[in-house]
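Input set for joint prediction.
Command: fold jointly, output tokens.
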Amino acid sequence: MTTTTTATKQFMTTEQLLKHWQGHRNLTRRVIEAFPEKELFEFSIGGMRPFAKLAVELISIGGVALKGIVEKNTEAYNEEGFIPKTKEDILKKWDEETEVINHYFGQISEERFQETFNLFGQYEFPVYENVLYFVDNEIHHRGQGYVYLRALGIEPPFFWERF
Amino acid sequence: MTTTTTATKQFMTTEQLLKHWQGHRNLTRRVIEAFPEKELFEFSIGGMRPFAKLAVELISIGGVALKGIVEKNTEAYNEEGFIPKTKEDILKKWDEETEVINHYFGQISEERFQETFNLFGQYEFPVYENVLYFVDNEIHHRGQGYVYLRALGIEPPFFWERF
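tokens >
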């Protein structure tokens, strides 16, 4: 009996995950804001991408991926559709994606989060794992952004402040 | 009816979270391994801590925090108890903590994950949020480690390879 109970214990609800993710997105938004315009698009370390490129990657995944999951569309991932010229372009698109994420996330059922889906025709995992990947990937790249800011002599926002 | 159902949808089980976390820990272990001995303890960018210090922080949180949660002990967080001299010291302790995490994580009930706990006498949040923080904090610092490795001309392990 104990074993069965343990195997199906809930860790968190979908609402809690969405709030957690949007909290992270809010922090990433402030990291984008913290970069000077020029360095956002040009500064890098060790041959890695500038932070603007990383932000475009994040923008190209979250909402688009959720839409694909909801509509069961396995079309390939594409970063070419959004080519920002300014920090303002990025922040505006960032805020639009906040709404797209809220819209599609709410349409995924509890059962669906456990089903396998071939995201972008390439990442065949349970939906909850794909969603965790979006959040993890954002934290990972943002950590890189923290180093860029420190190397530029700019203090990044506190990691634990999310709203 | 729909509203009530939506509000309590499960995102993932506790077993899935533990597997996810240990997958990340496995990747972090390989990042530690990827550093040359000297650079692990000395290399840094922008005045940030060397990766050995970050690894000690991670080691000082996960298992210790879970033990505190299970035993309802709010004793303060402390990084002074473990002072590694070599990469091998860190990796050995890392593996010991893997078992500590598995041991204590399994003792936290579904209800407990939703209860507020004053972790380390300082971080008063629902237990599931504290656990997410441990994972997020690890991804954040490891992202920093990736930049250190790239700056050293070393290719880091793939972000998506966890086991």
